[in-house]
Amino acid sequence: MRINSFRIDGIANIERVTLKMGEQNALIAPNGYGKSNVLRAIEFGISFLTADEVQRQLMMRSRWLPINAATKGRNFVFEITGNMVVDNIEQQFVYEYGFAWAKSDNDGEILTESLKMKHPSDQRFRQMISRTSTDKCLIVPSALGRCNKPFAVSGQQLALSALARSTTMFLSPFAARICDIQIPNLETLDNPESYFSVGGGKGIVMLGGMTLSEYLYHLKTTDEDNYALLEDGLLQLIPNITEFSPEVVTLPDGQQKIYDIRIKEKFCTQPTTILQLSSGSKRMIFLFTLCIAAKKQNIPMIMMEEPENSVHPHMMENLLLTLQNYASDTKILMTSHSPYLMRYLRPDQMYFGLPKNDGLAHFAQINPSKLKYLYKYAGDMELTIGEFMFDFMLDMEGNNEKIEKFFIQ
Fold first, then answer.
1. CATH match of 2-23+36-179 with 3.40.720
2. Which of 23, 300, 342, 401 has the most crowded CB, counting CB atoms within 10 A?
């Protein structure tokens, strides 16, 4: 499964945001521009696919309903595009659904739904699901059929989810592949010790509820190939580490176990616990381990907030390169308010928060035809492009003419 793009509409302070996904992607803006809301909206949109009808009803009453003056009363729309392989044949797909948020006098309900697919030999997309109102839904019944078979759905039921649960419908394997999409939103590593704690600590859902120390021990003992990749990547990422060894100690009761990672640093005479590493090093190990886990589980994309926190700017390039090299087909969407991160990303990998002064989250890419001017301006001011762009965006606040000139919206 590969994710190509998202479109999000009508949630929180998001009127409409469209993101094309490269291997690495970043939402760049100062605090308060809606970066985190975009990640949460994607997480919300994916979770809605596999929620049951009671959960969906609650989600349509959630705190994420749009309350900005420009979006109040706007319906939620979620679109995801990508490529999937079913029966060894790759297909492109475009899936979209929309619902009306619940109001005080009525429940929310699903209004629209669409699935389009294209076989490599096809010239155009073929309509597979067509839903134009809450209770009017048509599907394709067979490989050669047209999208004309009525399919019964309720106001809290997605046709895609219902088809995914079936074992007899033609569209079932395609629907199941889309519903199986996982896009973890990784937590900010504010307290690294809690994830590596030798005494238990916080389990991580993506790692099957294990701490990183426990997960790395199990990886070492059950999957030599992926463990070798991880160990090689970490030793390149943090050159100061010369030895890296997850270990387990069984307590005197013979049942309870304590997991630790023993680290030997370049100028130390003996290994010590990973807890004695700097928070920046622990953060890099945390993020890299989750990328390897995503690769192992065939997760198509992960999201992370501010990966540069506690990481020295000169180590940031190593981190991004290592994540990209070892994450394989897993794409990365990150947020940042650091000009340092921008040094190591291409312009087409970055979406900038636009200061339109309307309380909405607006993200757009730089117009390619204006790049040489922006680099020239930055050079004339003896600034990095990252430092310049932050100042430039703040100077544009409320200047829609200038925003339209320099950004693709």
1. no
2. 342
